[in-house]
């Protein structure tokens, strides 16, 4: 079930501000709900690409800290590989790791990627994570915890929560920049 946006955003905010830790946050809903929320957000992001010109996809507001849609989508596709690998690491699945994965903040963003290429990349990434999730979920040991230098103690559910939260954060940014791009570059 998809988690209501306001409740989900509050949960992410509480974990990021350390009001609660990520393990506690991940215990508030079933892991499948986090994944459904991720997929719902991913579908909304995919819809943002509809009727968008290449110039609009690469538009960024001068002086703003917000990325272009091109940068946002390529970053999300690239960093998804890190979440994918983390999900494999914390379960006993035999799926192969993805070699190219982010190791830090902001990696993988590219300006100037054509809208159709962004759609294909997002669709391919979504298919990969959708295929891996049930396999990793089936082998999930909820008591297996790893220590992450940025987020503290995490289990499988916490990694999926982080995946969904990361997607949601960038979706909100992309929705804003889409409105700005369409106003600045009618197409």
Structural category: mainly alpha
Compute the number of strand runs: 2
The CATH topology is what?
Four Helix Bundle (Hemerythrin (Met), subunit A)
The strand order across the widest sheet is 1-2
Number of continuous helical runs: 7
* Highest-level CATH class: Mainly Alpha
What would you note in describing this structure?
With 187 residues, this protein is mainly α. It has a single domain, classed as dinb family like domain (Four Helix Bundle (Hemerythrin (Met), subunit A), Up-down Bundle). It contains 7 helices and 2 strands, in the order ααααααββα. Strands 1-2 form a two-stranded antiparallel sheet. Strand 1 and strand 2 form a beta hairpin.
List the keywords.
single chain; two-stranded antiparallel sheet
Brief characterization of the structure:
With 187 residues, the chain is mainly alpha-helical. The chain contains seven helices and two strands; from the N terminus they run H-H-H-H-H-H-E-E-H. Strands 1-2 form a two-stranded antiparallel sheet.
How do the helices and strands line up, and which of them pair or pack?
Layout: H1 5-16, H2 22-26, H3 31-48, H4 54-58, H5 69-90, H6 115-138, E1 146-148, E2 152-154, H7 156-184
Antiparallel strand pairs: 1-2
Helix pairs in contact: 3-6, 3-7, 5-6, 5-7
């Amino acid at each position: 079930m998809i988690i209501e946006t306001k409740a989900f955003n509050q949960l992410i905010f509480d974990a990021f501000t350390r009001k609660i830790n990520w393990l506690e946050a991940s215990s508030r809903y079933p892991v499948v709900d986090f994944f459904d929320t991720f997929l719902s957000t991913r579908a909304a992001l995919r819809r943002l690409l509809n009727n968008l010109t290449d110039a609009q996809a690469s538009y960024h507001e001068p002086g703003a800290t917000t990325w272009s849609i091109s940068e946002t989508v390529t970053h999300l596709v690239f960093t998804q590989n890190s979440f994918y690998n983390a999900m494999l690491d914390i379960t006993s699945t035999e799926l192969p790791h993805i070699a190219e994965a982010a190791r830090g903040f902001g990696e993988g963003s590219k300006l100037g990627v054509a809208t159709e290429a962004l759609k294909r990349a997002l669709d391919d990434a979504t298919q990969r994570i959708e295929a891996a999730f049930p396999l990793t979920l089936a082998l999930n040991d909820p008591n297996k915890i790893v220590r992450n230098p940025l987020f503290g103690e995490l289990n499988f559910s916490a990694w999926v929560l982080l995946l969904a939260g990361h997607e949601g954060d960038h979706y909100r940014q992309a929705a804003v920049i889409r409105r700005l791009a369409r106003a600045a570059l009618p197409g």
